[in-house]
Design brief:
The chain has about 220 residues and is an alpha+beta fold. The chain is built from 5 helices and 10 strands. It is about 30% helix and about 20% strand.
Length: about 220
């Protein structure tokens, strides 16, 4: 028979509950700390991502003209397979029908896209030394050799008419509004003067500006 000071069943249950809470307390603290750590990590990651966004990652709509030559032969981009109606919308696209002028890039949405990314949208690939063509272009893919190499010549809007320079970034170049670009597989020692015939075929300011927006040069 229990003594007068013996705990009741209710008190025993309460004591066991308190003991269990004390035993579980370290686990609860650890769990809460883990949740806090994850939250802090998410916030820190978001902040890092915002801080490291490309400075040119705004949005807009730009036009840039181009032509591409492979050892003096024009590489075609006027096949219907390159037209927006066939490819579907992409950040870098072409209007080759009645709505536009062939060989004018339209870059819409997030800006800062590279030539390499444009080519990917068109079923091609390009690195610093090799180009893989689309089947519609009917040309064999190839890269640099001892005497010829892929080159990019650029005429920037507003820097003077036909002021062409050789762009070292090549396919990592990011077209800007009204830029004119010659992509060519040419002799390593090619100059703007030796490439005059090809440069003169790049769409002019008036072609690039077919929507009657502000012109590049007066």
């Amino acid at each position: 028979m229990a003594g007068p000071d013996a705990p009741t069943r209710r008190e025993e249950r309460a004591q066991r509950a308190r003991a269990e809470r004390l035993r579980q307390a370290p686990k609860a603290v650890a769990k809460n700390l883990a949740v806090v750590a994850v939250a802090v990590g998410v916030v820190a990651g978001a902040w890092w991502g915002i801080e490291h966004l490309p400075k040119d990652a705004g949005t807009g709509h730009i036009h840039a003209g181009f032509k591409m030559f492979d050892n003096g032969t024009l590489v075609p981009f006027n096949d219907k397979s390159f037209d927006l109606t066939e490819t579907g919308f992409a950040r870098c696209h072409l209007h080759n029908g009645d709505r536009g002028v062939p060989y004018v890039m339209h870059i819409e949405g997030k800006l800062g896209i590279t030539l390499q990314e444009c080519f990917q949208h068109w079923g091609m690939s390009a690195s610093g030394s090799t180009v893989t063509y689309s089947p519609a272009q009917g040309r064999a893919s190839h890269g640099n050799n001892a005497t010829y190499s892929w080159q990019l010549w650029v005429d920037l809007c507003g820097d003077g008419a036909n002021n062409w320079y050789k762009e070292p970034a090549l396919f990592k170049f990011k077209p800007v509004q009204h830029s004119r670009m010659l992509i060519t597989f040419a002799p390593n020692d090619a100059t703007a003067q030796s490439l005059t015939t090809e440069l003169n075929q790049v769409p002019s300011d008036s072609d690039i500006n077919f929507t009657a927006q502000d012109t590049c040069r007066s």
